[in-house]
Amino acid sequence: MFEYLLAEDFGIFSRLEWQNHQKINIIIGDNDTGKTYLLKLLYCLAKSVEEYTINLDDKSWKDTLSEKMVRVFQPNNLNLGEVVRKSGDLLNIKALLQGDKYSCSFGKDTKQTITECEQSANKLDLNALYIPSKQFLNAVETIATFYKQLRVFGFDQTYQDLTDALIVPTSTKKLDKPLEDALDSLQNLFQGELALEEKRFIFQHGSEKYEMSQVAEGIKKISLLTTLIRNGAIKKDTILFIDEPETSLHPRTIITLCETLFALSQAGTQIYMATHSYFVLKKIELLARKHQESIQLCCLEKAENINAKFYDIKEGMPNNLIIDTSIKLYEEDVSLDIEA
Q: Is this structure's pTM higher than 0.70?
């Protein structure tokens, strides 16, 4: 699992140093502060280590990471130099993953292969999953057809990686209790499950079958998670990245989802979430305080550069734009009541 990250001249970040990664890590910030970019960087590092560990053709980690970053970030003309900060010269990344050091660096003239990489001699038994904010289940066939061409019309390789994880057959083996409990809490929200039929996903409710276009967006998101838990794609030593988990979900469902993610973290899954939701942020804070569990909050703020501040929300919620905006709405409501 991640323990440390340093990113210099990466995207819009001049320098970001993240220490003290926890089982659950929340990223917040205004629009255009790099939340998704940061999630995808962490994903590329973790997924490339996973693929390097299991590949059978002795491809180096440098080549594996290079290919993953091209396919995930899809830079202009597919040149990795495009992800180097515009006013910077040399991108530099350092990470500590399960105690092993990984690093890379490259400049603006880099094409599709990273110039400098160093990694531990060890190979790590982990798996990484990225759940995007955009729903994609009704476009699976299109993604599968085009992603190998690198240009996939707005669907980067996180979608294909996720599809590959979803099509793994469900095991009849009983899950460990924390995972079983997490699965039960999600399944109580609705009846039915995802199924693969003729290279496309459908939603099956008893004997009835529905095309993805007929299924509510919130049910798609929850059934996606239940499928990944049921087929063993989410388990101990999984690093799960979720971009805006609140998208298309009712606040009541968001609360259950947060409780489920907390249960997954207790079962050995490390979680990174980017969110704009007061409900996500507040529920995660309450879980941290209730269970006295350290949960890391990364607050990205716009200044001359993007500044990152880190807090353990077990100790309480720091001031931030999400909370401040909620308070302003409450104050406006009270003011109108007084005037009335």
A: yes
